[in-house]
């Protein structure tokens, strides 16, 4: 999600279904349709939680159930109640949107809670978006599927996230060195699979040639 989109999420964009939560993503100002074409045209499903596990679906349902029953604020993120009496009465959230600044600091708080080193790094929700798209590329997800998940309408916009990071560069260079000197590739699931397939293919060809002789 982009910055403004993340801040202005609506509770109605999360829909509970028998197959799990569905996130209804709307268009942004730089998507097709313009700033006035904000339609919920993209549904992103959350996989069901494993049996007996309190996963993302459970957490989302729990949060939505704690919102004010007759609240008028439509935004997803609500201000947390500070009143002990209110909380004792089951009023965990106030009927008003959480501040922009607090929402934007959520990622940093998550990193700190998970004890992830963020020294010298600019952490924001776009960092998570960028990392997620990198994962789609690394997993070999088809281009059209990846674009459907991210909401990109142009291939060039989607590929803008495909710029290689240092790990990609190291793997590429190790591959070149390996071809020249026969050294092993750096550990990488994708490289390992490709290498095994290549070796298996070569072995099969050698066996066929031996048999023919």
From TrEMBL:
GO terms for biological process: DNA integration; DNA recombination. Keywords: DNA recombination. One of its GO terms (molecular function) is DNA binding. It comes from the Eukaryota. This is DUF3504 domain-containing protein. It comes from Rhizophagus irregularis (strain DAOM 181602 / DAOM 197198 / MUCL 43194). The lineage of its organism: Eukaryota, Fungi, Fungi incertae sedis, Mucoromycota, Glomeromycotina.
